[in-house]
Amino acid sequence: MESIHTRIWQEEAEPDNAFAAASCHCHGYDVYGDLLLHASWIEYLFLLFRGEAPSLAQARLLEGLALALANPGPRDAAVHAAMCGGVGGSTSASCLMAALAVGAGASGGAREVRLAMEDWLERGTDAARWQTGLAAKPAENPADVWPAPGHAPGFDPHGVRCTGPVRQTLAHLAGLGCGPSLPWLQAQRPLLESAAGLPLAMTGVAAAALLDLGFTPAQGEMLHLLLRLPGAAAHALEQKDYGHKKFPFFRVELENDPGPAGAGLNTEDRA
Amino acid sequence: MKGPQLLEEQVGRLATRMGAVFPGERAVFRGQDLFTSLKDLDWLELYLFGITGRRYTPQQMRVLHVIWTHTSYPDARLWNNRVAALAGTARSTGSLGIAAALAVSEAMIYGGAPQLRCSEFLIRAKKMLDQGADLEALVRTELKEKRGIGGYGRPIVLTDERIAPIMAVVREQGLENGPHLRLAFEVERILLAGRWRMHMNVVGLDAALCADFGMSPREFNYFFIPVFLAGMPPCYLEAAEKPEGQLFPLPCRMMHYEGVPRRQWRR
User: Fold this and answer.
1) d(Cα A9, Cα B254) in Å, to the nearest integer?
2) Three-state secondary structure readout of chain B
3) Which of A158, B33, B37, B235 lies 20 to 30 Å from B19 when distance is taken between CA atoms?
4) How far is B29 from chain A (nearest CA, A)?
5) Domains present along chain B, CATH in parentheses
6) Where are the beta strands (DSSP E) in chain A?
C-alpha cells in the first residue's frame, strides 16, 4: 500500500476508527498527553522544525524573534496586501494568502531572509568575506522564478540609518546567549552597513537569529512566512471593519492615455 | 535621488503605462481603449498582450491556444490539482482552492522552474550556436553544471503524450521550422543518443515555440502561469459535490513513521 513517510508524526488509530487518532506523537513526544501539559507553543514550534526540544535560551530567542516579527505594521507590503483582502470583504484565507505571497519576496520578505541565511552559511563571522560579498551586486539568474534581488539581503534598500526597532530587537536577541551570529552582528553592524552602503534591516536580524537557532535557510524562510501572519490577520480584520471608504485608493497618472471616454464607440452602444 | 526621497516621490500616486479604469467611463489597457481598440481580442490574446504588449498572428494564436488546452488535465491525483480537489472535499471555496493550486504549480520539478530554465537555455543556446558554438558541448556543459535541462525528462514517465498532438497543430499552421523548435528537437536527439536517455517534455516544446514567437524566458513564464488552470475547477467541483471528506481519505495506517522512539518532555 502507498504510504506517507514521516519522521515527525506518529499516530495510533482509535480501536473503532482507522481515520481518527487515539494518540499523536511529535518527534517522539506525546502531543496531547505530554506537550500540551508541559511545553509552550514556541517550544513545540521549535520541536516541529528541528526535531529536538529547544534549550531554554533557544526557546527565549525564538519567542523574542516571533514577537519582533509578528506585526510589521500596516505600511509593510505584506500587511498592505492582507488589508486589500480585508477591505473588500475577501475570505480570511485569501487575506493570509495575500500576505504570504507578498511577504515571500526578496525585498523585505522571506526570500530575503533565506538569501541572507545562505550568505551567513558562506561567510560565517568572517568580516573580510562579508565585506567582499556585500560589495558585489546581487546576481540575476534569468532562469529563476524569483526576480533578481535589488539589494544585499538583510539590509534596508531605502534606509538612512538602522531603525530603532531593528536596533532594539538585535540588542535584545543578541543578549540571550544563543549562538555566535547575533552577538557578532551586533558588534560588526557598522562595518557591515558600511560595506553594504545600507542600514541593517529586520530581515538581517531574523536571518542571524534563525541561523543561531540551528534552522536551515529553507526552514528560516518558512518560519519567517509563518511568524509574520498574526499582524496581517489582525490588520485585515480591522480594515474590514473600517470599510473601503476609509482605505486609500491612490491617484493614477496614466502615461499613455489614448483619449476620452468611448472613443470609437457609436452613440447607441454608449447609451 | 535615493532612500526616503525616492519613496517620497511615489507617495499617493500610481504612475503607470499599463492601464487604469475610469469608473463609469472607460478602461485603458496598455495604452489602448479596452472596449474599442481591443474589443475583438479573445481572452488569451488579451492575456498575452498584457504580458508582452505585442500581438500575435492567427497561426501563432492557434498554437498558443493548443498549448493551453493540451496542458490542463482534470486529474485530481496531480499535486497541483489535488490542492484544488482537497479544497473541495474540505468545503473551502473554489477561488481559494484554485488560487492555491495555481501557486503550487510554480514548482521545481514541473511547472514554473523547468519552464524558465528551458526557455533560458534554448534562447542562450541558439545565440551561442549562431556564434559558432557546438550544441553537443553546450548540452554536456548544461547537464554538468545544472544536473539537468528544463524541458527534458519527466518525473513519472519517459515520454510526453502532449508532444504529438501539439506538433500536429504546429505543422497544420506551418510553424514547424522555427529555429528554436528545430534546436529543441536537436537537443532531444543528443540526449537520447547519449547515456542520458531523456525525451523532450511538453515544456521543452512549448518553450521552443514561444521563443520562436519572440517571447523572452520571463514572458514565457508568465504566459504559462495559468496553463494548468482549466483542469482545476473540475477537480474542485467533483470533490465539492461528493460527500465531504471523500477525496483521498488517509487512515492512520497509511502513515509510515520513521522518526525517533517515544520519549518524555522535560519536567
Assistant:
1) 12
2) CCHHHHHHCCCCEEEECCEEEECCCEEEECCEECCCCCCCCCHHHHHHHHHHCCCCCHHHHHHHHHHHHCCCCCCCCCHHHHHHHHHHHCCCCHHHHHHHHHHHCECCCCEHHHHHHHHHHHHHHHHHHHCCCCHHHHHHHHHHHHCCCCCECCCCCCCCCCHHHHHHHHHHCCCCCCHHHHHHHHHHHHHHHCCCCCCECHHHHHHHHHHHCCCCHHHHHHHHCCCCHHHHHHHHHHHHHCCCCCCCCCCHHHEEECCCCCECCCC
3) A158
4) 9
5) 21-55 (no CATH), 56-105+227-244 (no CATH), 112-224 (1.10.230.10)
6) 4-6, 9-14, 17-26, 29-30, 251-254
Model pLDDT for residues B175-206, shown as the tens digit of each residue: 999 999 999 999 999 999 878 888 999 999 99
Question: Cβ separation of A263 and B36 shorter than 8 Å?
Answer: yes
Helix/strand/coil for A209: helix
The SS3 call for residue A263 is coil
As given in the structure block, the three cell numbers for residue A61 are 530567542
Question: Which of B17, B116, B263 is opposite residue A144, by nearest beta carbon?
Answer: B116
Band of pLDDT at residue B246, cut at 50, 70 and 90: very high
Q: Are strands B32-33 and B26-29 parallel, antiparallel or unpaired?
A: antiparallel
Strand-strand pairing, A9-14 and A17-26:
antiparallel
Q: In what order do the strands lie in the sheet with A9-14?
A: A9-14, A17-26, A29-30
Rounded CA gap, A80 and A250, in Å? 13
B145, B248, B265, B267: which to substitute to probe chain A, counting the most A Cβ within 10 Å? B265
C-alpha cell at B194: 547519449
Q: Report d(CA B86, CA B64) in Å as an integer.
A: 30
Q: For A128-171, how does the pLDDT look when each residue is reduced to its tens digit (9 = 90+)?
A: 999 999 998 878 888 889 998 899 999 999 999 999 999 999 99
- Pair A152, A137: CB distance under 8 Å: no
Q: Evaluate whether B97 touches B86 at the Cβ level (below 8 Å).
A: yes
Contact residues, chain B, for A21 at CB < 8 Å: 252
Tell me which chain A residues have a C-beta less than 8 angstroms from the C-beta of B225. none
Query: Which of B257, B258, B263 best probes binding to A when mutated, by most A CB atoms within 10 angstroms?
Result: B257
Write the pLDDT tens digit of every residue in A109-126: 999 999 999 999 999 999
pLDDT band at A267 (very low <50, low <70, confident <90, very high): very low
Tens-place pLDDT, residues A205-238: 999 999 999 999 999 999 999 999 999 999 999 9
Q: Is-contact B217 B123, C-beta < 8 A?
A: yes
